[in-house]
Amino acid sequence: MADGTLGPLSLIQHFDAPTEYRGAFGWMCGYSADPAFLNEAMERFTRETVGQRAHRGQVSLALLLDPGCPAIGPVEVPGLAHLPLQGPAQPPFRLLHAKVALLGFRHESGDGRWRLRLIVSTGNWTRQTVEESLDLAWCIEVSSDEVDPDYSADNEDVQQRCADVKAAWSMLEFLHSLFDLRLLDAGQELLCRETVVTRAALAGWVARCAACAGQQPRFVDNRHQALLEQLVPRVQGLAGGRRRNYLAMGSGFFEGASAPPSGAVPAVLKAIVERLRLAGLLSKTSTEIDVFVNPAACQAVAGAGTVAAMLDEGWSVRPAARMETVFGPHSQRSLHAKFIFSACSQDNSAACNSAWVYLGSGNLTEPGLCNTMSPYGGNLEAGVIFAPEGLEWNQQAKRDPRNVVTNLLPLQWDIKFAPNAVLGVGAAMPLAGDAFLAPPVAWLTWIPAEIGGVLQAAAPLEPDVSVLDVSGNPYARVPEGFRWLGHKPRQVRLCWQHAGRARECLVPVMDEFGRLAATELEALDFDEAWWALVGFPAAPNEDAAAPDDAESNDPAAGGGTASSGGVTGYPVRQMMELIENIAAKQTTIARADWPAWCARLEQTLAQIADSPVVTYFQTLDLNPLSPLRIAAFRPDFAEAQTKSEESRAYESVLDRVEEKWNTGDLSSIGGGKQ
After folding, report:
1. For position 328, what pLDDT does the model report?
2. C or N terminus of the chain, fewer CB within 10 Å?
């Protein structure tokens, strides 16, 4: 995190939900990630703690990583699904190296307003990126108000941002076809499955953006054409064809130390300069060219005679700036960012005229910049090429420091390496582990029994599939699934055969409410049920106690219509106050929040199924939930006569709760048998 005087957002802070918004659903792709980063990102995105997300059991972020990255288990980052690659075919890329996130936020009022945020990073989704690396990120947002046709028709800025979202979504959709997305559809038969609804909502928001998109996006990827091939036409289209006299190139990784001949300029760096000059984007004379490196690990640049060869070309090799105004005076970060920056410099002006920037995942190497995506020669890379305005070379009095280029990119002109400088080659890129491939089943469903339960698959499994205990021994297999004698697990280890070898991975367990890898729903006292509902849509605080009697005497505290606002007293009064409070609350629920409300309602009512209050109504032969079916006790969009999806989801919830309460066949209050 930045700790200097300037303090721009760190990569993890880009996941913060905007004021009055909360995260709905998002997609991320990258080369690697770790639970430490992801848990904090999830908390910022959803505004929920680890415990709250584990209680909710819904997926808010779907993560697509390079198959060689170790799998992130279902309980390590509640609310996140690390999705495996569909096997067994070789993916169409050497590495999945693109680092992109598309996040969707909904307004807390539930009035239908939304915002999309696109993040393109040079760094991985790891704690190391936040604390140790020198990386860059680019971020834009589009709001629901901006994609109104009357607003966007003549607004080039909105059209540009929408084009970027559309282009990024095209790449993410391509990845969707390669990865196993079954987990995101788990429990969809429950109708109120929040993940299914929010994922569809995000796709709808993207479609709204696509309808307003301009012609040329700043977002680029190399699925069909190498990034280097796209560089010149994108710069010409977005920043103009003027000749610049300054060029900076930086990378966290250059060509391997053995790639260029001894004493030669690295081929990729040379190709960048030649293409820009050939296109008239870089002056052939009086041009200042700087290459910024991590002195401890710069691969081919550290080769014998390479720095001297670059100096002979009139270039300079420099260590990346420490960026003390951003990271503080004691920063020791290592360059990992990949960037190209070019602009016009004039002696009598501080302005960076006609500036353009490339930043992204593609290192200045053959696989990263020069090759189209391919199984053996080209990574999947993504980045942005854009033309920032108002940049200045150095700080001027009373001018905004956020526009100074050295506060935005790791540039400095005080230090450069001599021809005989000794630079470090750095360690070789670590070998990838076994590919994280899709298991035969993406989740198992818990079916409770008198002792323990059964773990059931959604479809028949091959005989070689087994569930392992902590010692690696298989659990007994019965016709219904796998016999489990203990309490419901949140995740289990699955074992199967693939290409003649045994494979294992952790898969989540889904409970009767469609919650994945969720913590146990403990039984509630009857008078706690309302306090679990009153704060919706905020996540329930598992540690919070119900207000004391003095607070519960305020009807406004819970938004209910009953005299106490809480639930106290004799059984009939207790039940009727709860029903009235639920009715008053749910008639104000926004349509966008209805699936989440149905899930919360079902889970809460199920937690009081064994309450003496429910038992008392069983002895009266009355179904206390029957009033919740009348039109006055539900919002217009969920009334029975509408036959809407919201109505069907709500009716299904009441059916399941009545079955759990054993009240479905009892008399309706004020009527006969149902």
Report:
1. 82
2. N
What average pLDDT does this structure show over 318-324?
93
pLDDT digits (tens, 9 = 90+) for 119-161: 999 999 999 999 999 999 999 999 999 998 878 778 999 999 9
Q: For residue 25, what pLDDT is reported?
A: 97
Q: Of 111, 72, 84, which is closest to residue 181 (Cα–Cα)?
A: 84
Provide the pLDDT for residue 470: 84
Calpha distance 238→386 (Å, rounded): 6
Residue 327 pLDDT > 90: no
Evaluate if residue 191 carries a pLDDT over 70: no
364 closest CA partner among 264, 260, 276, 250: 250
User: DSSP for 88-102?
Assistant: SSPPSSS-B---EEE
Question: Distance of alpha carbon 389 from its chain centroid, rounded?
Answer: 29
Cβ of 108: how many Cβ atoms within 10 Å? 17
Cα-Cα end-to-end distance for the chain = 60
% residues pLDDT > 90 (the chain): 67
- As a CATH number, domain 220-407 is 3.30.870
Q: Provide φ and ψ at 44, rounded to 5°.
A: -70, -40
Between 240-254, 280-294, 421-435, 648-662, the lowest mean confidence (pLDDT) is in 421-435
Q: Are 217 and 142 in contact (CB under 8 A)?
A: no
362 CA to centre of own chain: 21
Assess whether the region 12-211 and the region 220-407 belong to the same CATH fold.
Answer: yes
Residue 558, both tokens = 């819970």
Q: Is the pLDDT of residue 568 over 60?
A: no
CA 212 to each of CA 204, 206, 229, 386: distance values in angstroms, whole numbers, following the listed order = 13, 10, 27, 19
Return the number of other C-beta atoms located less than 10 Å from residue 615's C-beta: 14
Class of domain 12-211: alpha beta
Give domain limits for the chain: 12-211, 220-407, 444-510, 526-668
CA distances from 485 to 21, 175, 448, 455, 622 (A): 43, 39, 10, 10, 36
Rounded Cα gap, residues 231 and 229, in angstroms: 6
Q: Interhelix angle for 612-619 vs 571-586, to 10°? A: 110
Phi and psi at 177, nearest 5°, equal -75, -15
